[in-house]
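hey so u asked for the seq, here:
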Amino acid sequence: MLDGKRILLVVSGGIAAYKCPELVRCLRERGSGVRCILTAGGAEFVTALALQAVSEQRVYQDLFSLTDENEMGHIQMSREADVVLVAPATANIIAKMAQGICDDLATTALLATDKPVVIAPAMNVRMWEHAATRANVDTLRQRGVTVIGPEEGDMACGEYGLGRMSEPMDIVGALDGFFRAEAPLHGRRAIVTSGPTFEAIDPVRFIGNRSSGKQGHAIAEALATLGTETILVSGPTKLPDPPGVQVVHVESARQMLEACTDALPADVAVCAAAVSDWRASQEAGSKMKKVPGTPPPPLALVENPDVLAALSQTENRRPALVVGFAAETEDVVANAEGKRSRKGCDWIVANDVSPATGTFDGDSNTVHLVSASGVEDWPTMSKAEVGHRLAARIADFLTKEAS
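ran it, structure tokens below
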């Protein structure tokens, strides 16, 4: 959910400011862009140079800088972000926010913003428990400000209790949850299959295919950015797990079907995996040896379970929308239409995977969306763009179905 999000980080004057370079790094690893405002107090604990190095963005400090106001004024800065995060949020800046005081760049940007504000408080336990701080925090909550933490633990002053700023990864997780709650598919559940399946012949050899998993992984990530609880059932690939997605790693078609069935019920299932149609009728318990002068052993095959058909025809727990993929080398649309009818799914995303297209291991795809309404021919685009476009169509379908 944080991929592509623009975050304005306000670093105020608490000892926990030393964690902010790590916080910026974690946010950027999730795909967020981070711009920092550093208060005078914050600069006592962390340097602008350190924040600039990890954010790769200029750090802003002075409200009355003619250069800064000309290049990136406080109003523009506060409104170009998707969220304003104050970390650490000291008792002082919380009090100023509650009272509408704007006497420096940070508080002026906070008063000028029209975007959501999130704070991560950090202060001595007595300051956190003081009636004035509690009232100020309650005021901010009533205005829609989200509060992350604080946590209980040892403090720099030697005391113990509530007041420690949440750890960077906990703040990242809370921000991720914040954006999910705002997303159109919040509360929905999606199952996505991806990659190839490997069907063992013996402990060394297997039957497989050339699927890279790039398209399925892109779809899972795109659905997660729209707020779904996404379970990605992935065959063997070389890809990292997408952020914000629960990944179940499998090898065979039978394992993939079992994982998908375990993930039910779901609102949508997208079967993008290239599942092997057949497997060896009997797996050898040890590596089969080549014996010179003798013919190779016969390889008897049996049909694998059909994951797409099984999800499409599941009684009682069938997802509201089941989407299949048809990887074809000829008569792409015609074969996809036939597949949709046979499997009983709602949509089929058809693509040409003949060697000349470079689709299997490439980064782009040309697909056709086949449904009961007809065929949509999509232009060639990146697999990430296909994922986002399909996720948007799924969101539109589920939203209309709910209404």
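The chain has a mean pLDDT of 91. Residues 189-402 form a domain with the Rossmann fold fold (CATH 3.40.50.10300).
lmk if thats what u needed
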